[in-house]
Amino acid sequence: MSLKMRIFKKSILLKLWAVMVFLVLIVLWLTGFVQTRVLKQTYYRQHLEQLTAEGLKVVRNIAADPQNGEDLGTLSHILGLNIMIVDEQGYLRECRGMGMDMSPAGKISVFEHHGIPWGKEEFNKIVRGETLHYIGQNNFLGQNVLSVALPYEVKSERGIVIVSAPLAPITDRIAALQKVTLYTGIGGIILATLLSLVFSRSVSYPLIKMNRAALSISRGDYSKKLDFKREDEIGVLANTLNFLAAELQKKIADIERLDNIRRDFIAGVSHELRTPLAIMQVCTEALVDGMTESEDEKQEYLNNIHQEILRLRRLVSEVLDLRKLETGKIDFDFHPVNAA
Length: 340
What we know:
340 residues; alpha+beta; six-stranded antiparallel β-sheet; 7 helices; 6 strands
C-alpha cells in the first residue's frame, strides 16, 4: 500500500474533502448534461419555429406572385437562409441563398441531382399538407443545416418550400454555453475544495482534540477539559468525555481513599494483634519455664491467655464483618433499642 493511500485512509479531513468534491462533480456534470440537452432542444425548437414562420412567408409570397425569384433571393440574403421551391413532381423551381442562386429552365429532379433529406414517400406527405423538419448534413448545400419543409398550393399547382438555415451558429452558441458550464464546474470544484477544507477542519479538529484528551485519560491525566460550545453530536461526545474523565477521577480518588483506609486498618489491626500475642507469649513462656510458684498464680496466667484469645477472636470476627460489609453479604439483626 502506497504512502498516499495510507494517509488517505487515516485522514478524515481528506475523506470529507474527496466526498464533497466528488458530489460537486456529480452534481455539476448532471446539471451541465441536462442543461446542454435542454438548451439544444430549446434552440432547435425556437429556430424551427422561426424557420416555419419564414417558410409561411415564402408560401404567401408564392401565392401572391408565383414568379418571384428575385424577391426570394433578396429575402434569403437578408435572413441568411436557403430557400428551395420544388414542384409536385419533384423538380427544382428556385434555389436561393447560402451560395446558391438557381432558377433552372430545364427539369432538375431534387431526388437525383439536388439531394434532399426526405424520400419520395415523405415528399408526397409534405405535398399533401404535412410539415417536416430535418437536422443534419445536407449534401447539396455542403454543410449541416436545420431545414423545414412546408406545402404550397397556387391555383392548381402544388409543391413544397424548403427553408434551411446553417447549423453552425446554433452549435457555436451551444459550445459557448458548454464552455460556461465547464468554467462554472472548475470554479465549483475550487469553491468546493475550499469549503470542504473548512468544513473538514471544523469536524476533524474537535476529533483530534478528543483523541488527545482520551490519550491523556489513559495516562492518568484527567485535567484536560474539552470546551466545545456546540450542540451537535461532536459537542455531545465532548461532554461525554468530560463526564467520563470526571467520573474516572472521582472513582480513582475513592479507590485511593479506600486503599489508604485499608492500609491504616491493617496497620491498626496489626498493632491490635501484636499486644495480645505479646501477652500470650509472656504468659506461656512463664508457664513453660515453671516460673509460677503457686496454683493461683498459674491460674492467673491461664486466665490472661484466655482473655487474650477472646480478644483475638473478637478482632478476627470484626475483620470478617468488615469483609462482609465490603462485599454486601452481611446479615443485620434488627431489634428495638432505647434511644435515651
